[in-house]
Amino acid sequence: MATISREPIAPLHERIKVTVSPSDYNPTYESALKKYAKNANIPGFRKGMVPAGVIKKMYGAAVFTEEVLRKIENELMQYLQQENISYLGQPLPEDSNDAAQINYTEPKDYTFSFEIGLKPEFSIPDLVKSKTTLNVVDATDEMITEEIDRLRQRLGKLTEPETITNEEDILNVTFQKSDKAGVVEEGAEIKENSLLLKYFSSKTQKELMGKKKDEQIVLQVGKAFEDKERDWLAKDLGLDKDNKEDLNQYFVMQITKIGFVEKRALDESFFKEAIPAKEVKTEEAFKAEIKSQIEGYWKHQAQHMLEHEIFHILSEETKMDFPETFLKKWLLASGEKEQTPEAIEKDFPNFLNQLRWTLVSNEIGTQQSLQVGREEIMDNLRQQLMGYFGSMSMGGNLDWLDSYVERMMGDKQQVESAYQRVFSSKVLAWAASQAKPSEKKVTVEEFQKLQEKHQH
Q1: Distance between CA atoms of 254 and 78, rounded to whole angstroms?
Q2: At 75, which CATH number?
Q3: Hey, how many other C-beta atoms are within 10 angstroms of the C-beta on 2?
Q4: Does one domain contain both 317 and 430?
Q5: Range of 91's domain?
Q6: Measured between alpha carbons, how far is residue 294 from residues 65, 244, 277, 290, 330 in Å?
Q7: CA distance linking residue 258 with residue 279, whole number of Å
Q8: Over 60: is that where the pLDDT of 393 sits?
Q9: Which of 63, 317, 365, 404 has its CB surrounded by the most CB atoms within 10 Å?
C-alpha cells in the first residue's frame, strides 16, 4: 500500500511525498503488458501470440515507467480528495524527482515529491455594514423634451431643400487640403463627411446660409467649428487636434447634398411608432412614458454602478494570504505560452486580484447555491451577438441567430466565457441585494463623471 507524508514548506505551501512499492504498481504493470501482447503486430508472430519475454524486452521499460508514474499520480490525487485538501492550481512535481531511477529490472520502492499551494481561509465582508451609494438620476423636463425631440427627428421625414436655411440642416460635404485662396494641393485626398450646420461656428454658419448644392467655401478647421465637433472632425481629417499648425490648415469644403428632417407631429401615429409596445393616445401619456423610460435607463445604470462598487469591496476588502512563491512557480511551469520570471513578476498583482475575485465569487456561489443553466448561457451568447449586430438591420426572421448560438455552444472557450459572465452577474446581483446603499441625487453630468472613474 502506498505511503504518503505531508510537511510544511511555508505558510499555505506544503510538500507531499508519495512512496509506492512493487505491490502497488506490479498488478497494473503486468496487466498493461498483457494488453500489449494481445494487440501487438510483430513480424514472425501471430497477433496475440507474442511471447511475454519478447513483449517485456521490447516494451517493458517504457510501460513500467509509465505505470509507476501513473500510480504515484493516482495516489496523490486520491489522497488530496480523501483528505479534503483545498489547493490552488495543480500539484507541482519537485525538481528532485527523477524518472530515470525507475528500472523495471529492479522493482523497489519509489518516492516522488510534490509541492502544493493551499487555498486561504477568508470571510466575506458584511455588505450590510459596507458603505455604498446608489446614485439616482431623476428625469427632468429638459431631458424629457430632448428625448422627444430626438424621437421626432429620428422618425421624421427627410427632405432635400435647395438652399441652407436652418441650423438643423444636414450637410453632406467633401474636404480637400488647399491654400488660403482655395487652390487645392496637388494630389490632395478627397474626404467625405456629414455634418449638421449647428456644428459650425457662428461666423461660418452665417457664411453657409443660402448656399446651394455644389457650392464651396474655404475654411480652417480650428476656426470653423465649435470646440466639441472640432476635435473629432480633426481626427477624421487626419489632423492633430492639439497641433496649432494642423488646425490652421486650409480646406476647400464642397457641399454635395443638403438634407433636412421634418420633425414628426405629436399625434397618435407618432406615439405608436415611437413606443409600439404601449397604447399611447395623448401627449401627456406619451411624456409620462418617456419619463418612465428615461428613469428606467438611469436606474439600470445606477444598479450597474452599485454592483461595480460592491465588486471592489469584495475584491479589495476580503483579506486573504497567498502562497506567492508556489503560485509564481506554478505560473512559470503551467502557462500555455512560455513565460519568463520577469513577465510573471510584472503581472503577478493582476493575477492575485483575479484569483481573489475567483475565490470570493466561488464562495458566494457555493453559499447561495447559485447555478447557471444551459439556457442562460445561450441567452448570454445571443445577447452578445445582438450587441455585435445592433447597429445593423437584422430583419424579422432570427432563426439564423439561434442556429449560430447552437454552433457557439460547441466552442468550449465561448461557453466558459459566457458562463463566467452569467455567474459573476448573479454573484454581484446577490451581493447588491444584501447592501444597504444610501441614495444620492445626481445630475446626468455628475453620473457620467462617476462612470468615467469606473472605466478600468
Answers
A1: 78
A2: 3.30.70.1050
A3: 18
A4: yes
A5: 3-118
A6: 69, 40, 16, 6, 50
A7: 36
A8: no
A9: 63
* Residue 198 DSSP label: G
For 261, 402, 407, 422, the CA distances from 389, given in Å and listed in that order, are 26, 14, 17, 21
The b-or-e profile of 404-432 (16+ CB within 10 A means b, else e) is ebeebeeeeebbeebeebbbbebbbebbb
Q: Which three cell numbers stand for residue 194?
A: 456629414
Which residues, other chains included, contact 78 with Cβ-Cβ below 8 Å and sequence gap of 6+? none
Question: Where a domain ends, among 225, 243, 262?
Answer: 262
State the Cα–Cα distance between residues 166 and 264, nearest whole angstrom: 17
The upper half-sphere exposure of residue 8, i.e. CA atoms within 13 Å in the direction of its Cβ, equals 4
Three cell numbers, residue 383? 445577447
Whether residue 125 contacts residue 313, with contact meaning beta carbons closer than 8 Å, is answered with yes
Task: Tell me the whole-structure pTM to 2 decimals.
Answer: 0.72
What are the beta bridge partners of residue 140?
none
Domain boundary among 69, 94, 118: 118
Q: Mind listing the pLDDT tens digit for each residue in 335-361?
A: 667 788 999 999 999 999 999 999 999
**Per the structure block, which three cell numbers stand in for 239?**
489632423
> 106-130, pLDDT tens digit by residue?
889 999 999 999 999 999 999 999 9
Q: Please indicate, yes or no, whether residues 215 and 334 belong to a single structural domain of this protein.
A: no
Enumerate residues 6+ apart whose C-beta is below 8 A from 122: 318, 319, 320, 359, 360, 363
Alpha-carbon span 183 to 215, nearest angstrom: 15
Whole-number Å distance between alpha carbons of 192 and 253: 10
